[in-house]
Specification:
The structure holds two protein chains of two kinds. Chain A is α+β, with helices and mostly antiparallel strands. Chain A has three domains: about 10-95, Butyryl-Coa Dehydrogenase, subunit A, domain 1 (Orthogonal Bundle), CATH 1.10.540; about 130-245, Butyryl-CoA Dehydrogenase, subunit A, domain 2; about 245-385, Butyryl-CoA Dehydrogenase, subunit A, domain 3 (Up-down Bundle). Chain A contains eleven helices and eight strands. In chain A, helix 3 (about 75-90) packs antiparallel against helix 8 and helix 7 (about 255-275) packs parallel to helix 9 (about 315-335). Chain A is globular and about 75 Å long. The N and C termini of chain A lie far apart (about 55 Å). Chain B has a domain at about 205-350: Butyryl-CoA Dehydrogenase, subunit A, domain 3. Chain B contains eleven helices and nine strands. Chain B has a four-stranded mixed beta sheet, with helices on one face. In chain B, strands 2-6-5 form a three-stranded antiparallel beta sheet, with no helix packed on it. Chain B has a two-stranded antiparallel sheet with strand order 8-9. The chains are: A alpha+beta, B alpha+beta. The interface of A and B includes residues 134, 137, 141 and 361 of A.
Chain lengths: ~400, ~350
C-alpha cells in the first residue's frame, strides 16, 4: 500500500480508473486520522478541521471543481470512485457546503469578482459555508419560502427564518434562497444571496435532534443588511440556479454504503446475540442482503450512465428511496433481535461501533432529508411515469 | 359474566383511567418527563410514593395483604394511561415485585413497597430477550429498569428443582447502570446472597405468572404511547400546510394514517382479549398464548406506528424539542422488555392450539 506514489493533484484526472482507486486508498491510508473513521455522528468544524486542512494543503479539497479554480477537475466517474473509497474507509463529512454546493454555483453563475472573492477562501478553510434553504413552512414545498430581501440603496434588507441550516453554528458565511418578488409565481420570485454570518441581525439557535446532537440549526434574520453585490446570478432566477445545481450529486443520496455498513453491524449483532445460525434469522438476513445486492446493481447502472457522460434523469429518485428504506429495514431488524440492548443509549459493551439504538435513530431522517421519500415518489410517478394530476 | 358484572367491570376500569389522570393529566405537557431524562434515578420518588398511595403498586396484590385485588383489565387500562403520558416511574417492575413478595412465605419489604416508600426490583434476568429465570446463584442479573433508584432487589435462586427468593438491600449490592434511549436506565447486579434474606423456597410458578403479566402490561403501556403519538400525528396532518393544502388532504398520507389506525385497533383488541382471558382464570398454555399474542402485536405495531409518526411529521418529528420523538424512544426501550416480538411469536406457536377448520 505504502509503495504507491501519490501523484500531484493536477495529474490525478489523467490516471486510469483502477490506478486512481489505488491512489485514493493510499492517500487515505497515509493521511486520514484513524480516530475519525466511521464517526457515529456528524462532526463539527472543531473536529473535522484537521482533515479539511489536510485536504486543503494537499490540494484534494475540491474534487469536482475545475483545475483553474483550484479543484482536481475530476470527471463524474472519478468523483464516484473517490466517494466510494471515502465511504469504504469511513471518512467523515467535513463542513462541505462551500465545496459541494456554493463553489460549483459561483463557478457556474458568479461574476469574475465573486469567483476571486469567494473560491480561494473555501480552498483555505477561511470561509465555512452553510445552506439557508428550508423554512418552517417551506420544507417539502421549498418554493413557498418567505424569507424576504428588499433592496434599500446598495443593500438588500433580509428578514425571515431558515431551518435545518446544517452546522450553521460552525459557519461564517451562509448562502440563502430569498424572496425578491412577492407578486411573481412562487418559483419566479426567488434569488440567491451570500451573507456574512457576522452581519448584525443574524441569530443562530441549535436544534437538538433525536440523535441528541446539534447538527441542525434555526437561523433568524432581523433587518440584516447585505451588500447588493452579494447576489449571485440574475435577480429572481435563484430557484432555477439552485435546481440546476442538483446535478449528478443526487446519486450519492442513493449510495448503498449506509446499508452496507448497517448490514455488517447486523451480522456482528446477530453473532453476539447467538441468533446468526438461526434459520429464521438467516431468512430475514438473506432478504436484506439480497435487497442490498440488487440495490448495488441498480446503483451500478446509474454510475455507468455517468461514466459514459450521460446525465441522470428523475429516475435517480428511486435509488434514494430504496437505499434509505433498506437502511431503515436493517436497523429495524437489529432492534428486533437485540433484546433489551435495543434501548441502550451508548454502544454495547465491548464493541464501540455497535450502537443499536443510535444507528436505528440515525436511519430515521434519511427518508426525510434531501427531499423526503414522499416527494421522491411524487417525482417518480409524475416525472418518470408521467401519471396525470 | 352477567351483564351486570360486565357493567361493574367497565365501571371499575373507567375509574382506574380517571384516577390515572390525577398523576398523568391527559393533554398535559411532558416537561416533567423531559426534566427527569438522563438524570439519576430517572424518575420521581415522590410521584412513585403517590402511586403507592393511589393503590397502584399493589393493584394486583390481594386485599388481605394490603393490595387492591383488581384484575388485569384494570392494570392494563392504568398502564395504557401511563404510557400515553410517558410516565417513567417503574410501576410494571414494582408491581411484579409486589406480587412476588405477596406470594412469598415472608413478605419482606412488601408493606413499604406498596406504600411507594421504597423501590423493589426483581433481578430475574440473566440474558437478553427471555422470559426464563434460570436462577443461577452467582450469575449477573441484568436489565433492571430504573436500577439506579432501587432500594431492594429480589433474586430468584435455583435450589434443587425449585426457585427460592432472596431479598437483598441495594446498599449491599450496588448496580452497574447504563442509560437508555428514553432517558431512564438499566442496571445489572452480581447478587451477593450472603447479604440477603430468604423469603420463599418456591417462587417459580408465581414468577412465571408475574412475568407473563408484566409482558401484557408492557404491551398496554406501549399501546398508550401509540395512541398519543398517533393523535399528535393526526393533529399535524389536519393543520400542516404544504403546496397550498393541508397535508392531511393528500390521499397517500390518508392511507398511511388508515393503516396505522388498523394497527392500533388490532393492538387494543389483542390486549383487551388477553386481559379478559387472564382475568377469567386461564392457566397454562391458554394463558401464555394470549399474552404472547398481545405482546408480539404491541412490540411490532408500536415501533411501526412510532416510526411512521416521525416520518409523517417530517423534519420537525426528528427534533428532540418536539414530543413525538419521545414516544419513539420509549418504544425502542420497552418493545423488547419481557420478550421481543420474535420470542412471543415463537411462544405463541408453541402454546396455541391450531386453528380449526
Amino acid at each position: 500500500m505504502d509503495a504507491i506514489r501519490i501523484p500531484p493533484p493536477a495529474e490525478l484526472d489523467g490516471l486510469d480508473d483502477e490506478q486512481f482507486r489505488h491512489v485514493v486508498r493510499a492517500f487515505l491510508h497515509a493521511n486520514y486520522p484513524q480516530e475519525l473513521r466511521n464517526p457515529p455522528k456528524r462532526l463539527h468544524w472543531s473536529e473535522n478541521k484537521p482533515w479539511y486542512m489536510t485536504l486543503a494543503e494537499r490540494g484534494w479539497l475540491c474534487p469536482g471543481w475545475p483545475k483553474e479554480h483550484g479543484g482536481l477537475g475530476l470527471s463524474p466517474g472519478k468523483q464516484i470512485i473517490l466517494t466510494e473509497e471515502y465511504e469504504r474507509y469511513g471518512v467523515a463529512r467535513t463542513n462541505d457546503h462551500g465545496i459541494v454546493m456554493l463553489g460549483p454555483l459561483v463557478i457556474k453563475y458568479g461574476t469574475e469578482e465573486q469567483k476571486r472573492r469567494f473560491l480561494p477562501k473555501i480552498l483555505t478553510g477561511e470561509h465555512i459555508w452553510c445552506q439557508g434553504y428550508s423554512e418552517p413552512n417551506a420544507g417539502s414545498d421549498l418554493a413557498a419560502l418567505r424569507t424576504e430581501a428588499v433592496l434599500d440603496g446598495d443593500h438588500y434588507v433580509v428578514n425571515g427564518q431558515k431551518i435545518w441550516t446544517t452546522l450553521a453554528m460552525d459557519a461564517n458565511w451562509i448562502f440563502l434562497l430569498v424572496r425578491t418578488d412577492k407578486n411573481a409565481k412562487k418559483q419566479e420570485g426567488i434569488s440567491f444571496l451570500l451573507v456574512d454570518m457576522k452581519t448584525p441581525g443574524i441569530t443562530v439557535r441549535p436544534i437538538i435532534n433525536l440523535e441528541m446532537h446539534d447538527e441542525f440549526c434555526e437561523t433568524f434574520f432581523d433587518n440584516v443588511r447585505v451588500p447588493k453585490e452579494n447576489l449571485v446570478g440574475q435577480l429572481n432566477k435563484g430557484w432555477d440556479m439552485a435546481k440546476a445545481l442538483l446535478g449528478f450529486e443526487r446519486i450519492f443520496l442513493g449510495s448503498p454504503r449506509q446499508s452496507g455498513y448497517a448490514l455488517s453491524r447486523l451480522k456482528i449483532l446477530a453473532e453476539r446475540m447467538g441468533c446468526w445460525e438461526d434459520a429464521q434469522f438467516q431468512d430475514s438476513y438473506a432478504r436484506l442482503r439480497l435487497e442490498f445486492e440488487d440495490l448495488k446493481a441498480l446503483y451500478g447502472t446509474f454510475v455507468e450512465r455517468l461514466k459514459r457522460g450521460q446525465s441522470l434523469g428523475p429516475d435517480v429518485s428511486m435509488l434514494k428511496i430504496l437505499q434509505t428504506e433498506l437502511f431503515q429495514k436493517i436497523t429495524d431488524c437489529m432492534l428486533e433481535i437485540a433484546g433489551e440492548n435495543a434501548g441502550l443509549l451508548e454502544p454495547m459493551e465491548g464493541n464501540r461501533d455497535l450502537n443499536i439504538g443510535g444507528l436505528y435513530i440515525q436511519a430515521r431522517p434519511a427518508t426525510i432529508y434531501g427531499g423526503s421519500n414522499e416527494i421522491q415518489r411524487n417525482i417518480l410517478s409524475k416525472n418518470v411515469l408521467e401519471l396525470p394530476g | 359474566m352477567s351483564a351486570a358484572e360486565q357493567d361493574d367491570r367497565a365501571e371499575s376500569i373507567r375509574m382506574i383511567r380517571d384516577s390515572a389522570a390525577a398523576l398523568a393529566p391527559p393533554g398535559g405537557d411532558l416537561k416533567r418527563i423531559r426534566d427527569l431524562r438522563f438524570q439519576d434515578p430517572g424518575f420521581d420518588a415522590g410521584l412513585f410514593r403517590q402511586m403507592g398511595e393511589m393503590g397502584w403498586i399493589g393493584l394486583r396484590v390481594p386485599e388481605a395483604l394490603g393490595g387492591a385485588g383488581l384484575g388485569l383489565g384494570e392494570m392494563c387500562a392504568l398502564a395504557e394511561e401511563l404510557g400515553g403520558a410517558l410516565v417513567p416511574e417503574p410501576l410494571i417492575a414494582a408491581s411484579l415485585s409486589a406480587q412476588l413478595l405477596a406470594a412469598a412465605g415472608r413478605h419482606g419489604a412488601l408493606p413499604v413497597l406498596l406504600a411507594g416508600e421504597v423501590l423493589v426490583l426483581t433481578a430475574w434476568q440473566e440474558r437478553p430477550d427471555t422470559l426464563e429465570a434460570p436462577g443461577t446463584p452467582d450469575a449477573p442479573r441484568r436489565f433492571l429498569p430504573m436500577a439506579s433508584g432501587a432500594d431492594f432487589f429480589l433474586v430468584p435462586v435455583r435450589e434443587g428443582d425449585r426457585l427460592a427468593l432472596y431479598e437483598l438491600p441495594a446498599a449491599r449490592c450496588v448496580p452497574k447502570v447504563e442509560r437508555t434511549q428514553d432517558g431512564g436506565n438499566l442496571g445489572s447486579i452480581v447478587p451477593n446472597l450472603v447479604e440477603g434474606t430468604k423469603l420463599s423456597d418456591d417462587i417459580g410458578p408465581m414468577l412465571a405468572d408475574g412475568l407473563d403479566e408484566a409482558a401484557l402490561v408492557t404491551a398496554a403501556y406501549l399501546l398508550g404511547g401509540m395512541e398519543r403519538a398517533f393523535g399528535m400525528t393526526l393533529d399535524y396532518l389536519r393543520t400542516r400546510q404544504q403546496f397550498g393544502r393541508i397535508i392531511g388532504t393528500f390521499q397517500a398520507l390518508q392511507h398511511r394514517a388508515a393503516n396505522l389506525n388498523m394497527q392500533l385497533a388490532l393492538t387494543r383488541a389483542s390486549i383487551e382479549a388477553a386481559a379478559a382471558t387472564l382475568d377469567a382464570g386461564a392457566i397454562g398454555d391458554a394463558r401464555r398464548a394470549a399474552v404472547s399474542r398481545a405482546k408480539a402485536r404491541a412490540a411490532e405495531a408500536s415501533l411501526l406506528v412510532q416510526r411512521e409518526c416521525i416520518q409523517l411529521h417530517g423534519g420537525i418529528g426528528y427534533t428532540d424539542d418536539y414530543d413525538v420523538g419521545l414516544y419513539l424512544r420509549k418504544a425502542m426501550v420497552m418493545a423488547n422488555q419481557y420478550g421481543s416480538a420474535t420470542l412471543h411469536r415463537r411462544r405463541f406457536m408453541a402454546t396455541s392450539p391450531e386453528v380449526e377448520e
